[in-house]
Amino acid sequence: RGFTMETSDDKLERRLYSHDLAPLPKEMDAIFKTMPDQVIRPGYTEEVSQMVKKAIATNKPIVPRGAGTWGLGGSVPVKGGYVLDMTAMNKIISIDDRNVTVTVQPGITWKALADALDAKGLFLPSHPSSAPSATIGGWIGTGGTGIGAYKYGTAGDFVRDLEVVLPTGAVIHTGDKRVPANGGGPNLNWLFVGSEGILGVITEVTFSVLPKPEEIRFVSYSFADLAKSAPALRKLVRSDVNPMHIMFGDRSHFDYLRSIGKHAPEVGCMFTMALTGSKASVDAEEKALDEMVSAAGGSKLPKEVADHEWSERSYEFRVRELGVAAIPGERLAPLDSLEKVLGEMDKLVKGMKLKTATIGTIADNNTVMLMPYYLTEEQNFWRSTTAMGFGKKLGDIAFENGGRPVGLGIFFAANLSRVRGKEGAELVRTLKRAMDPHEIMNPGKLVETGTRWGIAMPAFLMNFGMNMMAGVKGLMPRDKMGERELAKLKK
Fold first, then answer.
1. Burial (CB count <10 Å: 0-12, 13-18, 19+), residue 98
2. In the chain, helix, strand, coil percent, each to 5?
3. Is the torsion defined by CA of 420, 78, 140, 52 positive or negative?
4. Sheet arrangement for strand 159-165
5. How far is 369 from 81, CA to CA, in rounded Å?
6. Model confidence at 382, in pLDDT bands (50, 70, 90)?
7. Cα(27)–Cα(154) distance, integer angstroms
8. Closest to 276 (Cα-Cα) out of 248, 318, 310, 244
9. pLDDT for residue 489
10. Helix 226-237 crosses helix 279-295 at what angle (to 10 degrees)?
11. CB 272 within 8 A of CB 218
């Protein structure tokens, strides 16, 4: 193979890699060295291995990165070093019609892969809502729970094999391309799913896929508010109705969309579901859903509304067009705690004087994933920085109600012990030390909140700082982002 790796030392380009979906105030550079020393775009596994060995030789960190569509800083440097932009490794290596598998490089987007499979009558049902831009490797690395998870499981459930460059430069395969990885010792696929790039660089992925369903149909229902939808949801998840996906948004979310001129219904909240299967089975499921929702006081919306909402599923944060940042936070909670969690979220929002809206999904038949987002002025250092305490407080609400945050990254690494328990967290740290003896693979994430000086910030100090931010935000004047646009809707 010819040499394909591109490198860039350009300061402006390096600055673009110093943040992900969530903007970071430049003042954060006092704690984290977020600007990389160099941006590398490899084309092949061998080049990734070469760069890992170079990182060891130069004692510089190496940070794997997909499209940067996450918001927790997992692909943002904390000590500079090399950012490994994997988006140039975006080829489909093979689609195996007979064994119903597909092998791809990690930089291909989920939409590009879905389109290629669709053309062959195949179906990869689990993917992130950010599928048009999110990469295969990036979402596997964050362990995402997204579209299709309710019926089919997460993307990790479809992984047959990963090719991974370890922090030593060695290359391994974690499974088998044709058969499951079960029964051959620990399943190494799951060691890297959700590892946030701290254990190695994914360079190839093999998925098992499915034949395309005979019917894919979308239905939407409205309720007075999210809390009032809970009885219908609990009945649904205990029934034999099995939607591919269930997503929702509250009144504020749709109000914000209408305020920027987007088509959105005037509802207290809306659920949109995707049904898959034979035409007969989908007909039966739709009828059962209609009856459940009606009995719970909800209403069915026209088909064109459902079709439109499904077409918009990848663009939840169009509200950024207001000229502000929309910062999301993902939190899992047991479905039987939904009303309590929503009530506590509402108190938190009022106490911090934020402008928020809530979207989310039903992740499985016991779990709701809430994705509240708040509006903030990126240019206002104090407002944008203190508002970051919202994520910490949301996590506390989730923990107190039997749930947890989704993802750790830089800012929520202090939650590792709360998520995995003290002994479990120490096991993860032990694995990290054993697999990364040179401490070069995406340091300062997940197992610790690292700093530019190489000294980890203690968990208690990070949590104290986040709580302080939330308290200071509550002392500030009420946020007014979006009020002018919303006022126009009422005229």
1. exposed
2. 40, 20, 40
3. negative
4. 92-96, 101-104, 201-208, 159-165, 171-173
5. 34
6. confident
7. 37
8. 244
9. 64
10. 130
11. yes
Burial class (CB in 10 A: 0-12, 13-18, 19+), 7: exposed
Strand 356-364 with 245-250, pairing: antiparallel
Tens digit of pLDDT for each residue in 428-478?
Answer: 999 999 999 999 999 999 999 998 988 888 888 888 888 898 899 898 888
- From the number of C-beta atoms within 10 Å of its C-beta (0-12, 13-18, 19+), residue 480 rates as exposed
Q: H-helix or E-strand containing 98?
A: none
Residue 289 CB contacts under 8 Å (≥ 6 apart), including other chains: 219, 221, 236, 241, 243, 273
First-to-last C-alpha distance (Å) of the chain: 64
Percent of the chain with pLDDT over 70: 95
Token readout for 39 is: 């941006």
Per the listing, tokens 């490797």 go with: 137
Dihedral (CA of 441, 202, 245, 328) sign: positive
Return the bridge partners of 216, or none: 276
Beta strands per DSSP E along 170-244 = 171-173, 201-208, 210-211, 215-223
Cα 162 to chain centroid, rounded: 20
On whether the CB atoms of residues 220 and 297 are closer than 8 A, the answer is: no
Average pLDDT, the chain: 91
Tokens of 286: 């739709």
Q: Which pLDDT score, from 0 to 100, does residue 327 have?
A: 67
